[in-house]
Amino acid sequence: MKAHILISFVIICTLSSCEKVIDVNLNEASPRIIVDGRITNLDVPDTIKLSRSGNYFGRDEFERIIGAEVVVADNAGNREVLQESAPGRYVANQLKGEPGRNYHLQISYGDETVQASSPFPHAVEIDSLTYRYRSGEFFLADGNYITLYFVIPEGITSYFLLRLKSDSIMYSFNPDNFILFTSEFFPDRKVEYEINQATFGLGQAEVELVSLTRQAYEFYSDLNSIRGNTGANPFTGVPENPKNNLSGGALGYFQVQAISIGSIVIEPLTGLP
Amino acid sequence: MKKVLLVIFLFPVFAFAQNIHTIKGQVRDAEFGFGIGGASIVVSNTNKVVYSDEAGFYKMNLAEGNYTLVVTSLGYDTLSKKVNITEDTELDFMLKEESFVLEEVQITGDAVNQNIRSTEMGTVKLDIAQIRELPVLFGETDILKTLTLMPGVQTTTDGATGLYVRGGGPDQNLVLIDDAPVYNPAHLLGFFSVFNGDALQDVKLYKGGIPPTYGGRLSSVVDVTMRNGNRERFSASGGIGLISSRLTLEGPIVKEKGSFLLSGRRTYADVFLKLSANENLRNSTLHFYDLNLKADYQISEKDRIFLSGYYGRDVFRFGRNFGFDWGNAASTLRWNHRYNEKFVQNTSLIFSNYDYSFNIAAGDFDITLLSGIQSYNVKSDWDYMPNRRNHIKFGVSSIYHRFNMPSFRSNIAGLEEFNVPSRYALENGIYAQNDFVLNSKVSINYGLRYSLFNLMGPGDVYSFDENRENVTDTTTYNRGQFYKNYGGLEPRLAITYIVDPRQSVKVSYNRMRQYIHLLSNSAASSPTDLWIPAGNVVSPQIGDQISAGYFRNIKEGMYEASVEVYYKDMQNQIDYKNGANITFNPTIETELLFGRGYAYGSEFLIRKNKGRLTGWIGYTLSRSFRQIEGINQGLPFPARYDRIHDVSVVTLYKLSQRWRMSGTWVYATGNPVTFPEGKYEYEGRIVNFYTGRNEYRMPSYHRMDLSFTHDRPARKHFQSSWNFSVYNVYARQNPFLITFRDSEADPEVKEAVQVALFQIIPSVTWNFKF
């Protein structure tokens, strides 16, 4: 609870607390295979990146897994061996995400194998985008806000991730957080969703509406919650690795995503003196 | 249920053909006239000891003859009286407050060898007078903190008052003030407890062998008794300290018939905020206050009524934009009726409430979040002593709970109100027990409690799919309609085998059932932790504990030693999914994980009760584990309050006629924590990964506190004393939290940072009484 942290912060400030850097001996967990990749419906080739986890106190440089055999197949008889286009980057040139299919990933590297499978999620298309300038509102930064229009399917819950792209974007919250929502947020099938997590400056803005499986949605949501939670803090819960769809103790996720992209150009306000 | 005339016949009295007479009366404070509860009356040359009830009344049977009666109570001079019993006699004892010329400060309020003979085990009784002597944070006497100095009882972190008893969680303690439950016994996020020492008589903690009179929590019972007011004359007492002041007023309602006591405490920690350079901090408020009321009145020879009340609140405001306040209310109206000398009934009406509210105001906007729990309890307890070998208690209780789930209010158009629907339940209990003296060697306390929990409407009840992720069905129930019942037996048993008058062996077993749960996904207690009832998804917790102990007195009770071992099994324990939202969620069941827990340990205690130096050393060796599906790959992991070693040393030393000194030292294995063991990159973000739950330990915790008390010479009725105390004398930096952050030197590398809360904290308090 935010308030809680705030109060404890006040207490800490008041009571001449003491902060110091300490040595914590962490076990060096044996490095795990990290799968960071997706199969989508987009026309560009999809990639799957393979790397190793690193030491917690090490630098943010991770060993790439070179020369693995990466195969993706669907349940319609398509199968592709991915080509390594750069160290640790495996590219699917033919295989595409199609509604109604199931996808299977198989990675072989030395004597390690990782398997995963995921259905193609129910795809939702962006109908259109609009934007408006808002200012002086409660808990909202002044700026241009984009509204997304789309129709959610009836009878099932859809899960979404939003990716925003613009040269001048300002996030209201931690920009590393994944923006997630479900169709349960909306009472009607026709949705008008104003993205209040970010404001956009002038120029081209692009919104990716990513439809997810429920499991993938929870994976992203777990990532959000554990990323803000490190160490031993009596005011937070205990983090647990996000559940994924990978076998063999691998981390990351094999994503199969239905993506719809919309774009809009934000123009200077008119009518102002 | 209180120790109404707790008479313990330990050895069968020789059944000579003598005339038996009843001696009864009251033990009273000589100066103020109020009844002194828990005073022991020892009949010399016999094995007979009786205790006064909480209003000071006692009763015993004696054969004709000459006796010396020795009356003792903590904080009073011992009184000896020679009596010649030839007929039924009424005899009052007036005890004088302990004069400090006395050589010894008595630590225990109990009579000699009481610890050996009673069937109670796993029990700690502390008298408020001895609690007051101990050094504490900011000089605030705190019974819950003092309890953590006993083996088997611990707290999580610096300052916190959440009690963890024998590997159980903080919501598994039934905390009662005069029979009324206190749902959140912490002030200021746990830095202080809600119990104002001035208004209290004593506290009793049951860690094991919990008698059937109590039910509803798995781990322990903390039974706090408020003190009765002065029956003779009006008086006042109080104290002025660094961060708080206290005032107690008491006096007779009708002389010798009834009394009242009104006690208040207010902290002013926020005055320090005024010194801050930050304007928001200067305009902030951070304080709490407490009010205690107790009144008793003797309606007739056989009837007395007691009224107890507690009300306390914490208030926190940050600038003008943010407000947060929370508090408890508890009250009890009790009618005590004596049918005859052997049969007593207590009937109580009890109300308890806990709530918090959270307010954010910015510009024209105003948002409030409210939540809490309320309960109404009616109960009756009977106490029957048909003969010297049996002491029977039985009773019934019914509690109506209202769980006020979070509700949201604002003046924002379209978001005016949103409520997570309240939940309602009835919790019923019926019990009977007997404290039975089989022979001179063996006493047995056996009993049975049956509890029944009924969930009732109005409300929507959700059914979930197999993985408890989606609501599959919603059923709506009307007001008062029962939709789910839980119930079961709770057997309790305690056996004492007296080896000889100086040593005994005891074993006990108890089963407890707990129908309400406190959801809290943080280790420190939070005012926003949420009480929920068991329901169609959440099952009641069931706890079984077996324990055994060896008790021994050395040198005529100068020293008292005990060893106890226990094993505890806990079913239907709750844990949380990652980032669980427990504050604002109508389908909170989707955020929970369930499993079992088990704990075991041994507790060693040696106490010195007499002499200039008194005190105790306690040591606990214990483990506590949880096994929850969905956490740690389903394997057992150390509970977050698993603590292997726990040592406390408590000493009280009388330096001179006017100066007393006390010191405590505690040592504990650091709490288990989960640290990342590696990191990886996913979609351009750096993510930590974990291998096992609670595999690491915080650095070990240790701390020494000292306190000096100086009694000023008394002038007529006016007494005063100064208390100087130092918390954390050698400035140990005990980590409150450890976090990881990007190193300042190289942002791509992490470093661990520890935050310690309290280094040396001196405080001074002036106490008075007139």
Output the radius of gyration of chain B: 27 Å
How many helix segments of chain B? Answer: 4
What is the structural class of chain B?
mainly beta
Provide a count of the helices of chain A. 2
Secondary-structure element series of chain A: HEEEEEEEEEEEEEEEEEHE
Name the structural class of chain A.
Answer: mainly beta
Integer average pLDDT of chain B: 85
Oligomer kind = heterodimer
Largest interface: A-B, 70 and 88 residues
Any chance you could write out the topology, listing elements then pairs?
The complex is a heterodimer of chains A (273) and B (770).
Chain A: H1 2-14, E1 18-22, E2 33-40, E3 46-52, E4 69-74, E5 79-81, E6 83-86, E7 89-92, E8 102-109, E9 112-119, E10 126-134, E11 143-151, E12 159-166, E13 169-171, E14 179-182, E15 190-194, E16 198-200, E17 203-212, H2 214-227, E18 251-266
Parallel strand pairs in A: 2-18
Antiparallel strand pairs in A: 2-3, 3-7, 4-5, 4-8, 6-7, 8-9, 10-11, 11-15, 12-14, 12-17, 13-16, 17-18
Chain B: E1 7-8, E2 20-29, E3 40-43, E4 49-51, E5 57-63, E6 65-72, E7 79-85, E8 89-90, E9 93-95, H1 114-117, E10 123-127, H2 128-133, H3 143-147, E11 153-154, E12 164-165, E13 173-177, E14 180-181, E15 186-187, E16 192-193, E17 200-206, E18 220-226, E19 235-241, E20 244-254, E21 258-267, H4 279-282, E22 285-298, E23 303-318, E24 322-340, E25 343-362, E26 365-387, E27 390-410, E28 417-419, E29 423-437, E30 442-456, E31 459-464, E32 471-477, E33 482-500, E34 503-514, E35 516-519, E36 530-533, E37 541-554, E38 559-576, E39 592-608, E40 613-628, E41 637-638, E42 645-654, E43 659-668, E44 672-673, E45 678-682, E46 685-689, E47 696-697, E48 701-711, E49 719-727, E50 735-742, E51 750-756, E52 761-769
Parallel strand pairs in B: 2-8, 2-9, 13-18
Antiparallel strand pairs in B: 1-4, 2-5, 3-4, 3-6, 6-7, 10-17, 11-12, 13-14, 15-16, 17-18, 19-20, 19-52, 20-21, 21-22, 22-23, 23-24, 24-25, 25-26, 26-27, 27-28, 27-29, 29-30, 30-33, 31-32, 33-34, 34-37, 35-36, 37-38, 38-39, 39-40, 40-41, 40-42, 42-43, 43-48, 44-47, 45-46, 48-49, 49-52, 50-51
